[in-house]
Every structure is written in structure tokens, then in C-alpha cells.
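Form 12-C: Joint structure prediction
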Amino acid sequence: MIPPGETIGILGGGQLGRMLAKAAAQLGYRVHVYAPEADSVAAEVCAQFTCAHWDDAKALSAFAADCAVVTYEFENVPIGPLKALGKTLLHPNARALEVAQDRLNEKEFVEALGGRTAPYMAIDTREDLDAALVRLGSPGILKTRREGYDGKGQWRIAFDHEADGIALPDQALIYEGLVTFDAEFSVILARGEDGTTVFWDSAENVHDGGILARSTVPAAAAVREQVGEARALAQKVVDALDYVGVAAFEFFATDAGPIFNEMAPRVHNSGHWTIEGAVTSQFENHIRAICGLPLGDTRLAAAKVEMRNVIGDAAEDWAAVLADPANHLHLYGKAAARPGRKMGHVTRLTF
Ligand code: AMP
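Section 2 - Result
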């Protein structure tokens, strides 16, 4: 066990790091954030900040020397440079990062464990895309295998000829058939070093333009019926990876049962509701898991919990939001609002 008072290192400096740092501080840990961008909203709430590139081995090893355990809030951390962490504990491990960083790897990994995915094909050339359109047809979605998030690096193809107009980026891609779903939901779990695993209630998620807009718990019956099967798959994945920490799995609820979309080897936006809506939040349980502490109770703290994201630069009257005692406002302190940028979230509890 890593006792309170020790230092936890977080790779990545965004809002997930900020909320992890707050949970760590509550338990008495120091947090050291490592991120390449100077304007880190996580660094604002932590004890120490190293601003350096991912491939700066000297900076990474100095950072590791200061930390009892290192975790990440950003799954696109390049794996090669992590060697510079030396013997410092990394939770979740590099294998989890490797699987989850690449949409093709992650689908193959999950399928090998018996999970269902959207039909897909790897795309490296225009000929591959033509072949995929013949085999899988349209509509579908072309996605970059790596580094896509919040709908970035994705092209919807409604009819075959639409693909002709897309200038393929010089990157490995994947083409997925469009899944017809009743709802989207996520399975979020925390797994400890001894394999003990706890799950939060599954939120029903609504996306807008590829970006999460709202998560609601309890989910509709169509989702609740599929949560058991989805959890069983998620458990197999984290056991196979010998995973330690919080992981999130996104699913489509369909007539054919749950279809796995993607996993995140980290705390997840669709779990932000757990800060007020569950007895123990995803952030606290991630810190507990990586420090070898017992995992906290994941039960609901209200009858209904709704989380909505605050996205882009739409003006909102925060005083009015705060005046309603059912609302809990979280603003991430980002200086510049851009279209599609996650600026904060509001969680609303109903008792
Ligand atoms: P992703 O980045 O893969 O999570 O995609 C973002 C969102 O786009 C998902 O949450 C879905 O709403 C939608 N989406 C992505 N892939 C598919 C698919 N194969 N079929 C239907 N909807 C999809």
C-alpha cells in the first residue's frame, strides 16, 4: 500500500487529471502532473508540475523519481518513452495503454474474449476503403485508429460514393459499419491489485456530433437488461490485462445484445456523475486502486442522477445554475472556449 503523504504522478494535464488530483488531495496524497502543454488545468490544483514533452527521457525519469506510483489521464501517451519511468509503478500498465490506444487492437482484443463489435476493416489505402465499402457497405464511419477523440478523426459515410470525396489522411484507419442501436451506455469499473472489481451503475449516454452530451442514471430498461452481459465482458478484459485502476467501456444496446464500441484505460466523462451521484466517485476509487487501498462503495447516492457537459462557448448564467440546489457545477478553468471543447459539467441529483 502506498500511504497518504506519498506522491502520485499523473501523465496528462486536462480536466480528468484535475479531478483525479482533487480526489488524491482529499486522501492526503501529493500530486505531480506531467504534461507537454503549459496551460494545464490539472497543474492548477496539484503540488508540482513538470511541463515537458513525452519523449523527454530526462524529465520523465526525474518525474518518476519523485513519485510512488504513476498513472495517466490521457490514453495517447506514447508507450516507448515510458521506459524512462524505470522501476516506478505504472497503473494501469503499459499493456492496457497499448490495447486501448488503437481502435483495431482494442476491437481484436475484445473479440478474442468473446465480445461483439461493429463490423470493421482496417484501412491503409484507398483500395482498402473501396474493398470495405463492397464488403461492409454504407452507411459507416471511417475513423483514425489512433488519437481520435470527441468525434475528431472521424468521417461518416452515408453512401458509397461519399467516400470518393474524402482525402484520406496519412494515418492507419478503420472503417466500421454503422450500428443501429436503441441506446448507448457505459460500464465503468475499478479493479484493485488483488483483482477485486467494483462497478458503478451504468449510465445511458447521449452523444451529439460524436461528443458526449449527457449521462443519465438509472438508464432505460433497454440498457439495464444488457448491463450484465456487458459487465461480464469488461471483467474479462480487465482480468486479461491484469488491470489496476478505473476503466470505462462504451457499448451500444442493440436487438442483438450489447455491442462493444471502445474502451478507455482511465476515468471517463460518462462517470463524472459519480462525484456527487455515488457514494465513492470514479476519481477516488482510481486513486484507491492505484495506491492499493480498499475500494469504496459504488452505490447510487440519489434516486436519479443526470450529468450534462458544458461544451464550447455558449454563454450560460452560472449564478442561475448554482441557485438551484439540485445542481452541482464543475468548471474546469480552461481559458479559451472553442467549439466542441469540454469546459465543464453540471450534475443534477433527484432524491
Ligand atoms: P467513438 O469515438 O468511437 O466513441 O464515437 C463517438 C460516437 O459516434 C459514439 O458514441 C456513437 O454515438 C457514434 N458512433 C461511433 N461509431 C459508431 C458505429 N460504428 N455505429 C454507430 N454509431 C457510432
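Section 3 - Comments
The mean pLDDT is 96. The chain has nine helices and 18 strands.
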